[in-house]
Design a protein that fits this description.
186 residues; mainly alpha; two-stranded antiparallel ribbon; 6 helices
Length: 186
Amino acid sequence: MRRILDNLYRIAGAISGICIVIICVTILVRVTGRWFGVVIPSSGDIAGYLLAASSFLALAYSFRSGSHIRVSLFLQKLTPNALIFVERTVLVLASVLVSYLSYQLTFMVWESWEFEEVTHGYIPMPLWVVQVPVAFGSAIFAISVIDTTVRHFLGLEMIPKSEEEELAEAGPIDLKMNGVEQGATK
């Protein structure tokens, strides 16, 4: 199960990256088209939809890799027991909030499909089609937060830390190299 969930987070992150590449290509084609007097209809709208999809699909991957912003300055001052209590409280609250967000976004997609709403751009597209990646990304994010919460309560892992946090907690950095202090001149 662990491998399936980790692969799900990685795949969502990869799709997010692909969306960013498609945004770049779309904007490049739009700009190049202007040089030749060709208008690419709804390219700005499509780039916006892809940006929303990319943002939400990247949430789970970035959370699991420790890329989300944490208030580590505050957390460093806590005792180990207080840190565990704060992290568990935050994880439970985050699980509830992200699950509710996921539910609401999924409901929004269903309503758009039921009422046959379309986008307002030059090229009308079914609105639910552009909303599905956002709802899907939020659902994967909810799964990742709940997964982390359960694993935290079972004592299997703490909230993932960024590389910077791990370096900061590793201790002081030795600036001496081969007995000579860096930056020193003779």
